[in-house]
Amino acid sequence: MASLEKCDPEVAAILAAEVKRQSETLELIASENHCSGAVMEAMGSVLTDKYAEGYPNRRYYCGNENADRVEQLCIDRAKALFNAEHANVQPHSGTSANLAVYMACLKPGDKIMGMSLAHGGHLSHGMRLNISGMVYQAASYGVDEKTEQLDMDQVRQAVLKEKPTLLVVGASAYPRKIDFAAFGAIAQEAGCLMMSDIAHIAGLVVGKVHPDPVPHSDFVTTTNHKTLRGPRGGIILCREKWAKAVDAAVFPGIQGGPLEHVIAGKAVAFYEAMQPPFRHYAQRILDNAQTLARELMAKGWRLVSGGTDNHLMLLDLRSRQPDLTGHLAADWLASTGIIANWNSIPFDPRPPMRASGLRFGSPAVTTRGMGADEMKLIAGWIDKILLSQGESKPIDEVRGAVLELCRSFPIPARDGECAFDCQIRE
Ligand SMILES: Cc1ncc(COP(=O)(O)O)c(C=O)c1O
Q1: Bridge-partner residues for 137, per DSSP?
Q2: Where are the alpha helices (DSSP H) in 257-410?
Q3: Cβ–ligand 1 contact at 91 (below 6 Å)
Q4: Is the separation of the CB atoms in 241 and 226 below 8 Å?
Q5: Which of 178, 230, 218 lies closest to 201 in space, CA to CA?
Q6: β-strand 137-141 against 111-115: which pairing, if any?
Q7: Which atom of ligand 1 is nearest to the CA of 234?
Q8: The total number of structural domains that make up the chain
Q9: How far is the CA of 191 from the centre of ligand 1 (A)?
Q10: 95 CB under 6 A from ligand 1?
Q11: Does residue 329 contact residue 389 with C-beta atoms inside 8 Å?
């Protein structure tokens, strides 16, 4: 930071404020995490200077011997971590990874079928305003109205009816395990390809607390920055027969030069995720989510599908505060330092900006070393604030308690430790 402070104090001050914000708040946004100091160091490295269009040993610029080494290491680690035949580590984001898969295996106008956005899917799975919904015909499947879970018989019927070219599996706001084997069988029966987008659950998959999509999918995409706890960005895993098409779709299909500094960060994150303590971390993400869910339900809040078996949960505000919107509730929580996001719930009668739900996730607080006792405290504070009518006294009280908890559980990466050293801290 020393040279940044000297050269651009304005930006340095903003970054210092963000360090303070993160350390003094509880991050319950399910798609966020705190990556290690080692990952950050790699991302802030000299590799940012280098143009490396192409792939290792097939570049369009000279001087890429170190970029080649880091990208090949990252590819090898990604393949080993996920047990995949081929890996492309260049996608700048999860959305770019998905678009590259579409480009690799579809023609414009072909049909993709993913989980409905309104039921927890992602906009890159065919939303009307996203390029995936403009270039391709989009169809969707959803959760069962009663159980709010995927019913594989219903999914099968919908897929056989729609006959997509590509079945997209994966979600941004689905609190239950995904049965990739059942999806794979449906894709086989329907004669379509299958892409599993494990952006949210990748860390749970490699930590062996969620079923593995790799054996059942033609393509697997993921972000690196959620439960996997790496740098912002995406990767694609695929069967060898799709390797050439996927590589060509990423470059020159949708991207130019890769971000080798971020690829270095991905390599570090994959190394961390290969270490035995990462399994413990994944298990604790799950345990913490289930404790938080149980405590909220015990206080009378309804959770979509009645709980969680992954890292996230969706709270239905209507169960105790029928007039409170997710947006306002998230604002009240944020003023105490509890950071979450409002979210539509399946069959939500309200529009997305006034959604009836709140989404909570456990990856970031688990990285800080929190466990069951802290989840119970947090559930109590959430309950108090959601019933507070936004009054300042309960907000001030909870703000003080949140600050105290944050001070007891500093963010490990900010201390320069490796993430996998500190996650075993109880
Ligand atoms: C299931 C899923 N896929 C893809 C993405 C897109 O990732 P990015 O924001 O890196 O484009 C997300 C992001 O939340 C996601 O939840």
Answers
A1: 111
A2: 260-274, 277-298, 326-336, 363-367, 372-386, 392-408
A3: no
A4: no
A5: 178
A6: parallel
A7: 10
A8: 2
A9: 26
A10: yes
A11: no
Domain assignment of residue 67, yes or no: yes
Q: Are residues 330 and 241 in the same domain?
A: no
Average pLDDT over residues 271-292: 97
244 plus 334 within the same structural domain: no
* Predicted pLDDT at 1: 63
- CA dist 329 and 385 (Å) reads 8
Last residue of a domain, one of 255, 274, 293: 274
How many whole angstroms from 323 Cα to the centroid of ligand 1? 30
Whether 75 and 137 map to the same domain: the answer is: yes
Verify whether ligand 1 is closer than 6 Å to residue 170 (CB atom): yes
Whether residue 4 lies inside any domain: the answer is no
Instruction: Give the residue numbers spanning the domain of 334.
Output: 276-422
- Which one is catalytic: 51, 111, 179, 279? 51
**CATH number reported for the structural domain that contains residue 317 in this entry:** 3.90.1150.10
111 counts as catalytic = no
The enclosing domain of 118 has a CATH number of 3.40.640.10
* pTM value > 0.90: yes
pLDDT category at 275 given cuts 50, 70, 90 is very high
Residues 236 and 329 in one domain: no
Among 27, 71, 162, 197, the active-site one is 197
Query: Residues 47-57: pLDDT tens digits?
Result: 999 999 999 99
Radius of gyration of the chain (CA): 21
Closest residue (by CA) to atom 8 of ligand 1?
94
